[in-house]
Amino acid sequence: MITTDLLIIGAGPTGLFAVFEAGLLKLKCHLIDALPQPGGQLTELYPKKPIFDIPGYPSVLAGDLVDNLMEQIKQFQPGFTLGETASTLNKLEDGTFEVITNKGTVHHAKAVAIAGGLGTFEPRKPLIDNVADYEEKGVDYFVKNPEVYRDKNIVIAGGGDSALDWSIFLANVAKSVTLIHRRNEFRGALDSVEKVQELKNKGKINLITPAEVTGLKGDGHIEAITVEQDGNVFDLETDYFIPLFGLTPKLGSIANWGLNIEKNAIVVNNALDYQTNIDGVYAIGDVNTYPGKLKLILCGFHEATLMCQSVYNRLNPGKKYVLKYTTVSGVDGFDGSRKEAEKAVVKKID
Ligand SMILES: Cc1cc2nc3c(=O)[nH]c(=O)nc-3n(C[C@H](O)[C@H](O)[C@H](O)COP(=O)(O)OP(=O)(O)OC[C@H]3O[C@@H](n4cnc5c(N)ncnc54)[C@H](O)[C@@H]3O)c2cc1C
Fold first, then answer.
1. C-alpha span between 331 and 180 (Å, rounded)
2. Can you give the three-state secondary structure of 55-78, one letter per residue?
3. CA 214 to CA 61: how far, in whole Å?
4. What pTM value is reported for the model?
5. Measuring from atom 3 of ligand 1, which residue has the nearest CA?
6. Does the beta carbon of 13 lie inside 6 Å of ligand 1?
7. Is the CB of 101 within 6 Å of ligand 1?
8. What digits encode the pLDDT tens for the residues 134-151?
9. Which of 297, 299, 302 to mutate to test the pocket of ligand 1 (most atoms within 8 A of CB)?
10. What is the DSSP letter of 135?
């Protein structure tokens, strides 16, 4: 069982920044995310796009912002349960919480912050009758660990950034990479399209377009796919089939936890601390709603800050908290590190 002060469901930018604000208040955090890596929408949907409305950054790539947030919270040593979905939330008799994931990992926390964004990202699946029979038996909708594909034959389907980027990356890992797309044109970053063209010319990527995968074959594990191209139907042997057709967000299990939900978002008390109708459960970032709500990263950061103050007061009843600027107080990491501004020089002037 994992125990922590504040359990954060969702490791997007809001959840990550909450770790920093909680750390300043000496609260230990653990994050759960359904995705295999932190960063939420920024990592999963637009890592290479520049963001222009983060205070202090005239422009920052979404992926770089996540890297910086991870660097900023490192000193507070947060725990991560990645690749698992928080599926049940139980309030225990003593007012603490138990959150269990779809893989059975049990988390115990004094307070819970839901930073679930638009929800968990569900992969868009190909319309192939028996696709479910081969899920996790050769059909993968996410590349969780590229090493799985080392020296294997793989087929990737799709025409966006994920399909292009993973084809490029796995061309140096897998025995063979075949990229199949139903159009000749790809909707991705120009440099990725050009790189795939280059790898195709070098014989490192086998490109089949315009074509569709219409069938899967194999005894227990996938062994071949059926491809339709220009009216021709043929089979192609493969060890893995990775359809990367995009992701759709779903609030999922969170919707069954007894929270007040409006238009697929959790209603919170925005006049105070972003607490939900369940005492001790907060909702911050894109996942919440209140009058005037804006689904922006900087709004999530603000909500995370106020939420942490409320959690501190909840866990330390009667203890007065005096707001200190980090420029004055410095930052004491849980790893023993200390960051502080240079001390002013005290020197007598004769
Ligand atoms: C293309 C695009 C461009 C954008 N550009 C900008 C911009 O320029 N500026 C700006 O401010 N905003 C922008 N946004 C919006 C911004 O990305 C969101 O406001 C931000 O990601 C919200 O952060 P979050 O942490 O609240 O949620 P998310 O980033 O959505 O992260 C939520 C995380 O929670 C996880 N999760 C959900 N439910 C569960 C569960 N039950 N168990 C475990 N994990 C769960 C999800 O897997 C996800 O990783 C853009 C969005 C898109 C799609």
1. 50
2. CCECCEEHHHHHHHHHHHHHHHCC
3. 37
4. 0.80
5. 46
6. yes
7. no
8. 999 999 998 878 899 999
9. 297
10. B
